[in-house]
Every structure is written in structure tokens, then in C-alpha cells.
Amino acid sequence: MIDSLSGFLDVIERSNCFKKERFESNIKITTLGFEECIDELFCPKCGDIRRCVVNRVTHNPEFEINEFTESIVVKSLPCLFKATCLQCESETLLLIYKGPEEVELAVLHDTYNGCVTPNSPKEVKYYIDQAYRARSVGAVSASMAMYRSALEWLLYDQGFEKGMLGNKIKTLEEKIEKNNEPKWAVELDIGFLKAIKEIGNGSMHTNGGDIEKQNNIDKNLLELVDIVFAELLDKIYEQPLRSSNNLSKLKEKALAMSK
């Protein structure tokens, strides 16, 4: 999954698309001159790495590359690219634009994004997708708020319907203490859920008037939350189906052997 400008520039560089170079002091001016390239990118519709065709939609962008610091400044903004999966033909738009503080990359898919799994409830998919879309344009606090909503919907789907998110987590914790928890929560560290709730709350609240606390929410944190959610969704919705399908196949073969 590409969610950073440097990651996308790496794709372009691997495809040998840098052309028309000239030097000014220690600055190399590089114009990106290509119509398309093929590279392996994450496809959210396939749910895995796939070969994708990357096409340039807007004009050829220009980059300034400092040979000593290896820093890259993108000129001629905005720049728009389109990646098309060669397997499912889903499309992803990659927009390089000037953000409030630095050049950013927005990644916009035509399907659900983020760590969603095939059998996740549509409500959970919706909020994780919202979290990913916000994250892709640098709205990290908004993204964290959407992860919090995804967690609340997940617990609601699992039968914890009363109260706000804090009460839902407390009810689950009480069930764990009484050894009455759902199967997926047997080895769950409830601390993960509490942490997501607290960070999500902080992303929406005034925090005593301290806006600087929002600096604790960045893309590295959101990547970690994405990993936690992916493991949780797999444990709840995917593993039981895989086990059930595998058991059915074994029973079918066992029955055939016993005849």
C-alpha cells in the first residue's frame, strides 16, 4: 500500500522513468517524462500485492533532487497519476499536491480501503475506509476519530450494544474476567481497545485547550492502528470461516475413507 510521497517516488524510480536531467550547483533538476510504467502495488480490492499499470494523467512533473541531502522537492504541482490493477482492473488515483506544510500524496481508491477484510461488516468497512481516506490526505486526527467509530461498530456487531464505546469495552472486560468472553477475545489484550478509544477521544476533544496534543497522532501511529485492526478483523471474521472450511474438507475426506 502506498501512502507516502517517498514510497510513490520509489515506484517511479524503480521504473527508470527519470529523464531530462540537468545540474545547478548541488541540485539536480529532473523532469519526469513517461506515459506509463508497471510496478507491484497493493490493490485493496484484491487484498494483496498486484501488478499495476501507472499512467500519468496531468503534465510531466518536475523534481529538484539535492544530491547531498537526498531531499526531493516536487515542482509543477499538482500532479495526478492513475494506477490500474492488471487483475481486477480497479483504479487508484495518486495525487501529489502542496499541503499546508509540505508536499503530500493523496491515494484514492475506487473501492473500500485500509485494513478491511472480505467478511467484515459493511459498517466497520465504512469507517475504516473513511479512516484511510482521511489519512491519505494528511487529516490524521480525523482518521483516528474514524478508527474509534470503527471499533465501536465492531463491538456493536459482536453483541455489545449498550452504552458508548467505553461501556462496551467495560462489558467485554467483565466477560473476560468471568471467563464468559466470545472465542475471539480469549487471547485478546483489552489494552489495545482501551488505547484506541483514548486516542480516538483525544482526536475529537478540546483536551483542556491544548491543540499540541494532536501532534501525537501521525501516520506512524495510524499504521500501527491499522495493523491492530487487521489482526482483530482477521481473528473475528476470517479465521472462523477458514477453520470451518478446512474442517468440512477434512470431514469429507474422512467420510470417503470410511466407506
TrEMBL record:
Pfam families: DUF4145 (PF13643). It comes from the Bacteria. Residues 130-215 form the DUF4145 domain. InterPro entries: DUF4145. This is DUF4145 domain-containing protein. It comes from Clostridium sulfidigenes.
